[in-house]
């Protein structure tokens, strides 16, 4: 069954704990933490996401799915590992070479965290193939990273489908997560292409019924 990760990027800080509680009762599969450093992407959410990860670690039993949109991923791992992150994804575009990528993957494995590589819309999915044997997940961005509320890039389904076919042929059992512009219509497009985890923020958080919105996505 498809899983749903709720991005908390647009959760109001003044009511965050209450919102997290209400979201928790709606039974998402993950809380998705969008960490931006103001360098890799223009927006800076570092302090807010550190605070949200800490709060969720203390009050929630739902696993944390951390997405690092940062220039130097290694510098940000320890804090979110300490907050009990189930999985951490970092951008292949942020790394200078294969050695850096392997070093990050090894560090995550040594600390018992599932590893994932994220891919921007303009990056070829073939770039991640050499790392699949180390990964638990690939995060396919279906919008340009850094902003919420963007429209789903439909060509992302081609990338998801290509990755799914490659994994099936080569016996790689990994999750394919898609992030950006997910609603009940684009969720079907992504799932039909092979996505197993959908990241949704605004669609769920702006709804009047969290449980109903998550059910529609599933």
Feature tags:
globular, alpha/beta, 36% helix, 8 helices, TIM Barrel, 218 residues
Would you report the number of β strands? 8
Order of helical and strand elements: EHEHEHEHEEHEHEHH
By CATH, the topology is: TIM Barrel
Number of continuous helical runs: 8
Q: CATH homologous superfamily - what is it? A: Aldolase class I
Neighbour order of strands in the largest sheet: 1-2-3-4-5-6-7-8
Helix-strand category: alpha/beta
CATH level 1 class label: Alpha Beta
Quick one: biggest sheet?
8 strands, parallel, barrel
| Low-confidence sequence ranges | none
Backbone shape: globular
Provide the CATH architecture.
Alpha-Beta Barrel
Helix content: 25-40%
Q: Whole-number average pLDDT? A: 96
First and last CA, distance: 8 Å
Overall domain count: 1
Describe this structure in words.
This protein has about 220 residues and is α/β, with parallel strands linked by helices. It has one domain: Aldolase class I (TIM Barrel, Alpha-Beta Barrel). Helices cover about 35% and strands about 20% of the residues. It has 8 helices and 8 strands. Strands 1-2-3-4-5-6-7-8 form an 8-stranded parallel β-barrel, surrounded by 4 helices. The chain starts with a strand and ends with a helix.
Explain the layout of strands and helices.
Elements: E1 3-7, H1 16-25, E2 30-36, H2 46-59, E3 64-69, H3 77-82, E4 87-91, H4 98-110, E5 114-119, E6 137-141, H5 156-169, E7 175-179, H6 184-193, E8 197-200, H7 202-205, H8 210-217
Provide a compact summary of the structure:
With 218 residues, the chain is an alpha/beta fold.
């Amino acid at each position: 069954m498809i899983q749903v990760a709720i991005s908390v990027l647009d959760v109001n800080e003044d009511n965050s704990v209450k919102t997290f509680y209400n979201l928790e009762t709606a039974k998402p599969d993950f809380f998705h933490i969008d960490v931006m450093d103001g360098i890799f992407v223009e927006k800076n959410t570092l302090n807010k996401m550190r605070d949200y990860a800490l709060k969720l670690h203390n009050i929630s039993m739902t696993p944390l799915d951390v997405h690092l949109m940062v220039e130097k991923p290694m510098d940000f791992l320890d804090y979110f590992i300490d907050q009990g992150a189930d999985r951490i994804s970092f951008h292949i575009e942020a790394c200078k070479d294969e050695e850096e990528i392997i070093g990050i993957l090894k560090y995550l494995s040594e600390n018992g965290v599932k590893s994932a590589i994220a891919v921007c819309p303009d990056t070829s999915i073939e770039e991640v193939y050499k790392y699949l044997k180390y990964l638990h997940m690939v995060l396919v961005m279906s919008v340009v990273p850094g902003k919420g509320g963007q429209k789903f890039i439909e060509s992302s389904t081609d990338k998801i489908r290509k990755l799914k076919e490659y994994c099936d042929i080569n016996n790689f059992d990994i999750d394919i997560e898609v992030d950006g512009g997910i609603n009940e219509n684009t969720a079907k497009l992504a799932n039909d292409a092979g996505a197993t985890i959908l990241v949704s923020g605004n669609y769920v958080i702006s709804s009047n019924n969290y449980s109903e919105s998550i059910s529609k996505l599933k």
